[in-house]
Automatic annotation (TrEMBL):
This is Short-chain dehydrogenase. Gene3D superfamilies: NAD(P)-binding Rossmann-like Domain (3.40.50.720). Belongs to the short-chain dehydrogenases/reductases (SDR) family. The keyword Disulfide bond does not apply. One of its GO terms (molecular function) is oxidoreductase activity. PROSITE patterns: ADH_SHORT.
Amino acid sequence: MPNPSTTPVRRRTPFAAESVAGLSAVVTGGSRGLGLLIGAELLRQGCEVTLAARDAGELARAETFLRARGGDGDTVHTAVCDVREGDQVEALISSVARTHGSVDIVVANAGVIQVAPTAAIGAEEYEDAMRTIFDGALLTSLAALPYLRRSPAGGRLALIGSIGGLLAVPHLLPYSCAKYAVAALAEGLHAEEAAHGVTVTAVHPGLMRTGSHLHAEFGGDRAAEFAWFSALAGTPLLSMDAERAASRIVGALRRRRPRVVLTPAGKAADALHGIAPVTTTRLSGLAARLLPGGDGGAGGVTPGHDVRVHTGGVVGRLRGWGSALNDRAAARFNQL
């Protein structure tokens, strides 16, 4: 294989869409939700796709999902991998390179969401978010970049951030802190890797209807936290159809865009924070007062699929009304 330091850098027209047909793509956190749909869109665009995640059962169902969309044994592969473990990530990337001859596209999507007031959680939740979200993105990037530099097509790396990584969101602080770090990593890598012909795309989605509320973790007044989060995540005017989001993300990869922010609400929040950060912070403070208060009996976090069973009464009806689309997305995109 050519030495990355001697490989000439191709000149490309910025933001011109390039075909990705025939390229080898890896998606971490690819067994469900957004990662699964990014894999499906890459497959539709003609890529050979490898989905990586921790759960073998989820991966088996994800493979069935992609095969139903036209994939086969040559174009769809899965691999059990914990992105928090560097040796597993390196083994994943090297295996894909041996199988397909190159690694051309890598999407670092693995993550975790904790929804709780600060009083209800401790350092453990922050450490878990950083390990899964930031360390996962970092270890994936470090393992993939040597191969992406050697890609005949010019490598593409996408790091999935969040609007929560552009401005801090109340009751999502561990998530926001980790996503802020991913945003910095993506921006810095884009600048440094240009010399090697690799483009790095920072993706900052707003709320999406992926069904992720069932795998998010809730602390404090768990039922109330679950209700507001799942309802907002499923509200059409505030959230985005997940398949459309996946299409936009792959489109940004094809155009080698350095940064993409999804959803009108996300773009508006990003712009307002850039123009008037003090005002945005004060507005966030007002929004925080509307969220469930107190620690609700501090004691860690509970997965949404367990909280959901115990959500009833007025809170349950509110959640059911606001998140009907998100609940349907959970069934469609392997979140159950």
